[in-house]
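Q: My labmate handed me this sequence with no annotations at all. I'd like to see what the chain might look like in three dimensions before we decide whether it's worth expressing. Could you predict it?
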Amino acid sequence: MVRAAVLPAVGAPLEVTGIELPEPGPGRVRVRLAAAGVCHSDLSLSNGTMRVPVPAVLGHEGAGTVVSVGEGVTHVVPGDGVVLNWAPSCGTCHACALGEVWLCVNALNGSGDVHARRGDDGTDLHPGLNVAAFAEETVVAASCVLPAPDGVPLADAALLGCAVLTGYGAVHHAAKVRPGETVAVFGVGGVGLAALQSARIAGAERIVAVDVSPAKEELARHAGATDFVLASDTTHREIRGLTDKQGVDVAVECVGRAATIRAAWDSTRRGGRTTVVGIGGKDQQVTFNALEIFHWGRTLSGCVYGNCDPAADLPVLAEHVRAGRLDLGALVTERIALEEIPAAFGNMLAGKGGRALVVF
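A: Here is what I predict for the chain of 360 residues:
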């Protein structure tokens, strides 16, 4: 029996309770969690913005130690440190054949499986986004574990599983920020802080952080922001004022709200690029007129998991960490227990802090 944070139904409060995990069968791995990050996607799953089979154990950003492996698993052994990969690519679908593994149509198939059972009443539980990281231990498909990089503490390595891959990939893969360019990052949460650091690593000349909370300025500047703008109806004008009235080359939107996406678009120069990382609801409608699309020549693109291949990008990120260019600890503003996840959700809704990290 292990403790886990269970979502009993969409919109219901999380319940910390004991669950029964099976021993790993063929192609499966049991992992003892060191830490799990509380991501906005977990909140979106809990409130129904994103669909998830319920009841479920949420949590998809985590790292830990292999406890045992099932038949056929050879790339990790008991005692190995691993980072959880919540969206493993199948390697055979159309997107994978094109090399776009972040768009794999089969990546989340495991979310519909029965993952464990509640210890009190035997109810079947599903693994939210495949890996069910809000638990002391989890059992996942072998494709959902990647060897943890050397020289990175396991608790910090948890952040590599989503926030850092997403923020880094949004800057380096989706937006393709070049040295000397100007960048605006909208939303200074865990992903936004990773994007700010990544823009600095990419050699951006001016990096503008935008958030609704003035308390985020210190976090943003520590991550690499050269300027901080408090979100308002005139945000795009303020950003254009900081860039000789031209606008930034790249805007990275990490909020997922129609108004923020529109502001990010408006803040870019003619020919600029806007990358949308934030996950918004179907009710968030963004509108443009045909003439402005022609006149501005801008590009608006979505970004899934940072357009990353985790197996290829984790070693690159690890090298940035070891070299001191990427500070994982700077993303974390609170270290919490399982019981404190609902409070962390509340902080996200209120726009407070960076990443909350559940430490086991």
